[in-house]
Amino acid sequence: MHNVTAGDAAIPALGFGTWQLEPADAEAMVAHAIEVGYRHIDTAQMYKNEQAVGRGIKKTGLAREDIFLTTKVWTDYFKMGDLQSSVADSLERLDTDYVDLILLHWPNPAVPLKETLDALNDVRARGLARHIGISNFPSALVREAVEFSAGPLAVNQVEYHPYLSQKPVLDTLAAENMALTAYCPLAQGQVFADDTLIHIGERHGKNAGQVALRWLVQQDGVIAIPRSSNPDHVAANFEIFDFELSAEEMGTLNQLQREDRRVVNPSFAPQWDHATQ
To answer: Which pLDDT does position 275 carry in this prediction?
Structure first.
């Protein structure tokens, strides 16, 4: 598996996501994912499974430095002081001295962004996180965050799959030397019923999900974090580094992208970019 370089971070291009996994599933599937070969694990304070994720990692007996571990700070803790305390709590739950990457989970307009970024940089300065970044930030807010951050921001984690164009965000991140981490990379299972992806997969002996993940990681600066509670799917999602999509196949998949195909769009979401394809 290759790494994606973002600023001074080298991040495995494929990670295992844990959103919506109950603690028992999170523990078992994290351990299973690591045994399959994943070396990048993603969780968040809001998922209420950090403790289970920590146990899953420990269960494998792998050295801590062999895993790239990400968690995210929930928006209630964006004030100076609150953010640092919440990260310390996360580390305790994860049973680790540091995370490789800490992200702001969603923008929170109620707290000045500069204050939050100062707190985030302080977390890195204290050695609690190796790298820092953001999540669910549209491109104007990405630029603002970069401007306010004393150190480099590694990634912006956003929803991204073959049905959702993220061109403005991708262009902004490329200009800022940041990577995009794609959550819901399989559009919560929608890709599996898609004839276009199925047909491309048949040519390569792969399923539609593997095609969608390959399409993502074949793009410059894109990381994907599929999640599953099915051990077979966890293993299948990892089997995407033994084939390559042609330029024509990549183009065909690009044609599926629209602006309005979000599967995650809560009431507190920011004003999203308008994409032009």
So the answer is: 62
| Annotated catalytic residue 183 | no
- Cβ–Cβ under 8 Å, residues 197 and 163: no
Please check whether residue 233 is in contact with residue 208, taking contact to mean a CB–CB distance below 8 angstroms: no
Q: Which CATH number goes with the domain that contains 56?
A: 3.20.20.100
Answer for the pair 23, 48: CB distance below 8 angstroms, yes or no: yes
Structural domain including 25 reads 3-184+220-231
10 Å CB burial of residue 177 (0-12, 13-18, 19+) is middle
Residues of the chain with pLDDT under 70: 275-277
Neighbours of 33 (CB within 10 A): 29
Number of domains in the chain: 1
Q: How far apart are CA 26 and CA 189, in angstroms?
A: 19
d(CA 111, CA 116): 7
pLDDT of residue 277: 38
Record the pTM: 0.97
Q: Is residue 268 part of a domain?
A: no
Choosing from 47, 77, 160, 163, which is the catalytic residue?
Answer: 47
